[in-house]
Amino acid sequence: MTIRMLLADDQPLVRTGVAMLLDAEPDIEILGEADDGQAAVDAARDLQPDVVLMDVRMPVMDGVEATRLITADGFGGPEEHTIKVLVLTTYHVDDAVLAALRAGASGFVLKDAAPTELVAAVRAVAAGEAWLDPAVAKGLLTEFAARPSSHVPAPAELAQLTGRERQVLALVAHGLSNTEIADHLVLGEATVKTHFGRVLMKLGLRDRPQAIVAAYRVGLVTPQDRP
Q: 100, 131, 162 — which closes off a domain?
């Protein structure tokens, strides 16, 4: 399946470099480019890409608000096509990046990331996964720790998880995709998705970023751990 993409960045050199890199991949097609947030929203509505690679700092409308609009219910049109947003930035973790993740972005990648990492991030997000590197996980942990409204599973809730579900949650917190978890645990990818779905349900969590934060906050994993 071809991943159809829209690039949104106000720096022409960045867009050109990223376009050349991604267009060289046989399963990625660049549908268009946008140089500000409003143009990104308009282009996403017209082109209906699978993934928007979104800079968070742009004129007219920033990437956070553009992400919020693009990922909102009903934006995908009559066929309910879900558009994913992958945040592209020069900053490891800051308020704008965290705001974009809260606004509905599926992941985060640095502009100085290795080409292979950018391609892997695009493919992961297109497949419905989250893409968060350890720096983002730590930033999310710090940011959400200051928010008393964020849900933290109680010990009794964590005890509801089976051993396998705890393994899956720990590996998710380390940033592994479902495919990587399946390989690591020698399971089918569908089985991993089932386990993770049960984790979300049992712990009352909404999505993958929230699960990562919860895993760190309850001490299931620490930033120094290795999967």
A: 131
